[in-house]
Structure to design on (257 residues):
């Protein structure tokens, strides 16, 4: 039985591979503009997928990515044939972004969203000096490090993993709080927090230890305080092939050599 056609829109990164795939899919399927689509099909890597998630978050449209980039953890394999059947059988995964609220040294306030992680990073040769609170309780009076990050389960396999943070199963309901090259306390390896936790980070001695804050690809320089929490009022749905669903990928990463 042939699957019922869905109204799909295809968007692509600027790479040659993604642009070639875009033309191929447009020849095979009756694509519509994104504003009229039921499903958006981004072609590229994980960076382009993150851009697509931010772009279409307000619309509630479904997202089914196909890998035509460097890293494709959030993407399905690229095959031009059988797309309608794959979309019909795909498994949904609902993502809620982190919300970052920042005050900079000039007193201005900034807000940004992150599906992977929010990270604080030193701007100069000197280590950042940070005070870390969780739900209004100071947990670390002073962390000296290259930085610190708060990662979602999806983001736990990205920068968080490179910083030796834990991989988090999708349904665990927790966030990772992970130091980046901690100098003091040297043995602190981070913490797992309930997903409803609110993390408050204050940058200390910013006159000589400036710090930036990054939410996915949005950066704010010279910050003095950063609040991070999961925004449960915002959600977007990703679709994955049944034989390569996101939960299996996250689990598999824990056994990678």
């Amino acid at each position: 039985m042939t699957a019922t056609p869905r109204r799909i829109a295809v968007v692509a990164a600027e790479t040659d591979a993604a642009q070639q795939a875009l033309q191929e899919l447009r020849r095979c399927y009756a694509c519509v503009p994104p504003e009229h689509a039921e499903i958006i099909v981004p072609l590229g890597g994980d960076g382009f997928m993150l851009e697509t998630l931010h772009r279409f978050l307000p619309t509630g449209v479904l997202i089914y990515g196909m890998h035509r980039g460097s890293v494709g953890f959030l993407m399905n394999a690229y095959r031009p044939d059988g797309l309608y059947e794959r979309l019909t059988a795909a498994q949904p995964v609902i993502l809620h972004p982190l919300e970052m609220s920042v005050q900079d040294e000039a007193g201005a306030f900034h807000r940004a969203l992150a599906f992977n992680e929010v990270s604080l990073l030193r701007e100069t040769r000197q280590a950042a000096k940070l005070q870390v609170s969780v739900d209004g309780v100071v947990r670390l009076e002073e962390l000296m490090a290259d930085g610190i990050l708060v990662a979602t389960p999806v983001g736990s396999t990205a920068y968080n993993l490179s910083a030796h943070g834990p991989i988090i199963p999708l349904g665990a309901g927790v966030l990772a709080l992970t130091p980046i090259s901690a100098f003091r306390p040297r043995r602190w390896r981070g913490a797992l927090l309930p997903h409803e936790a609110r993390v408050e980070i204050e940058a200390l001695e910013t006159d000589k230890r400036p710090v930036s804050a990054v939410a996915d690809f949005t950066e704010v320089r010279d910050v003095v305080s950063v609040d991070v929490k999961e925004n449960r009022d915002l959600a977007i749905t990703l679709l994955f092939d049944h034989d390569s669903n996101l939960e299996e990928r996250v689990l598999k990463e824990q056994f990678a050599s």
